[in-house]
Amino acid sequence: MEMMNEDPGALIPELALLGAAVLGLLAGSWLPRRRQWLIAALAGLAFVAGIVATALAYTRPAETVFGSYAIDPTTNATRLIVLVATLLAVGASVDAARGQRRETEYWVLLLLGALGSVLMAGATDLLLLFAAFLLASIPLYALVGWSATSTGTEGAMKYYLSGAFAGVTMITGVTLLNAAGRGTAYVPLRENLTAAAAGGRSMPALAAVGLVAVLAGLAFKAGAVPAQFWVPDVSDGAPAPVAGIVTTIPKIGALVAVYRLLTQAIPEHAIDWPLIVAILAAASMSLGNLAAFLQTSVQRLLGYSAISQVGYVLMAAAVAARTPQAGPALLLYLAAYAITNLGAFAVAAAVTTPEGPARTVNDYRGLARRRPVLAGALVVCLLGLVGTPPTAVFLGKLAVFTAAVDGGMAWLTVLAIVNTVASLFYYLRWIAPLFTTPAPTAGPSENHGLRRRWASGVAVVAALTTLIIGVGAQALLGLLTTVP
Fold it and tell me: Measured between alpha carbons, how far is 133 from 213 in angstroms, rounded to an integer?
C-alpha cells in the first residue's frame, strides 16, 4: 500500500542533481577557465550523493510524493541506473570538456538532462510526465550543439526540430487522454477508462489515439520507431561522449515511463496496447539492424545500434501486463545496455588519429597491437551489445526473451533472435580491423590516444563492469525482483 506525502526528503537524489546544476551554473560564472573542473567535481559529487540516497531509499516503503511522483522499487532502480550511467558519462567527457570556454555549461546541461530522465520514470501524472520530457530534452539539444562545430550544430538543429514535433504530438496525446479519462493522474485515468470501456462508450477510441500520440513522444526520447530519425545524425555529428549521453540517459527514463504508463494508467482490455508496443519493438529492432549493416562511421553505427536496442527493451514493455517478469527484465536490460553502450562510446572518445577523432572503422586498424587494453574493452562492449555471454546484455536479453515468451509473444522473441544473430555482422565489421596491420599512414595514433586517459579509463571500467554483472547478476536481480 503506497503512502502519499509532501516530504521533500524523499527526493534527495533529484534535489542533489537540481542543486548541483544551479550551484554549478552560478559558481561557473565566476570561476576562471582553469578552475572550471570544479564544476565537474561538483557534478560527480551530486551523482554519488544521489546513489547513496537511493540506496537508503530501498529501505523505505513505497510512497507517492506530492501526489504525482512515485518513490517505489521501479523509480529507485531507475535512479541507480541513470546516476551510475551519468557518472560514467562524466568520466568519459572530462578529456573533451576540460579547458573549454563552455565547460561549466556542459556539466550543468548534463545534470539537468539526467534529472529529467529520472523524473520521467517516476511520474504518475501525464502533466508531470510531459514536464519531465521537456527537462530531459531541452538541455540535451544544447549539449549536442555544445562543441559549436558544423556537424554538431546540424545535429542539434535536427534533434531540436524532431523534439519540437514530438513534444507537440505528446501534449496533444495528453489532451486526448485527459478528455477520454477525465483526468491526468494515472490511477483515476485507468479507472475512468475502464468504466468507459464497460459502458460501451466511444471514449476508449479517443484514448487509443491519445495513447499513440503520447507513445510517439516517448519514442522520440528513447530513439525508437517512428521517431528515430534524429539518432544517426546526432550520434555521428556530436562529440563521442555527447553521442553516448543522448543515446543512453534519456532512453532509460523514457522506457521506464512507457512501462509505468501502460501498467498503471491504460487498461489492456480497453485498448490493445500490447500489440501497438510489440509492433514498435519489431520495427525498431529490424530497422536499426538493417540500417547499420553498411555503416562505416563508428558513431553512426552505434546510433543505429541504439535504435535496435530499444526494440529489445520494448519487448518487455509489450508484455508488462501479462507477466511479472517484464519489469525486472526491462530494468536489467536497461542497466546492462547503459554501461555497455557508454563503454563503446568511451572508446570512440579515446581513440584519435593525427587528423582528429577516429571516425571510421578503418581508423581502428591495428588498435589491438597499439593499445591492447583499449581494444579489449571495445571487443567486450561490442560483443556485449550483441548479447554474447558472459556479458550483462546477454542476461538482459535472456530475461526479456523469457518474459516475452511467458507473456504470449513468442513470435516477437523469434524475430528478436533473428535480429540478434544478424547484428553480429556489423559489430564484427568494426572488430575485425582491430587485429589487422594498419597502413603506414592509417590507424590510431598512439601518442594522440594516450592524451585521453579519462575516456580510456571509463571504457575499461565499463567493459569490466559488464563482465562482472554477466557473471554475478543475481545480486543485481535482487534489487529488481521487487518491481511490481
Answer: 14
Task: Tell me the C-alpha distance between 17 and 30, whole Å.
Answer: 20
Q: Which helix (H) or strand (E) holds 65?
A: strand 63-65
User: Domain boundaries in the chain?
Assistant: 1-271, 273-484
Q: Name which of 255, 375, 252 is nearest 317 in CA terms.
A: 255
- Partners of 70 in the β-ladder: 64
Torsions phi, psi for 325 (to 5 deg): -75, -15
- pTM (predicted TM-score): 0.94
What's the pLDDT score for residue 475? 61
Mean pLDDT of successive 10-residue stretches along the chain, which has 484 residues: 67 96 92 86 96 90 89 94 96 87 92 97 96 96 90 92 96 95 92 78 78 96 93 93 96 97 90 93 96 93 96 96 92 95 95 84 92 95 94 93 95 96 94 81 47 88 93 64 49
Beta bridge partners of 356: 353
Residue 58 is inside which H or E element, if any? Answer: none
CA torsion through residues 74, 333, 95, 163, sign: negative
Contact at 8 Å (CB) between 301 and 295?
yes
Answer positive or negative: Cα dihedral of 98, 161, 230, 79: positive
Distance CA 286, CA 307 (A): 9
CA-to-CA distance for 410 and 405, rounded, in angstroms? 5
* Cβ contact 251:234 at 8 Å: no
Is-cis flag, bond preceding 390, omega within 30?
A: yes
Q: Are 279 and 315 in contact (CB under 8 A)?
A: no
459, amino acid identity:
A
Q: What angle separates helix 298-318 from helix 326-350, to the nearest 10 degrees?
A: 170
297 strand-pairing partners: 360
DSSP string, 31-92: S-GGGTHHHHHHHHHHHHHHHHHHHHHTTSPPEEETTTEEESHHHHHHHHHHHHHHHHHHHH
**Terminal-residue alpha carbon distance, the chain:** 12
* Type of residue at 435: F
Question: How much is the pLDDT for 195?
Answer: 84
- The DSSP annotation for 345-370 comes to HHHHHH-EETTEE--BGGGGTTHHHH
What is the distance between the alpha carbons of residues 230 and 157, in angstroms, rounded to a whole number?
10
Name residue 63's beta-bridge partners.
Answer: 3, 71
- Residue 325 makes CB contacts below 8 A (sequence gap 6+) with 399, 402, 403, 406, 407
The residues with which 262 forms a beta bridge, in sequence order, are none
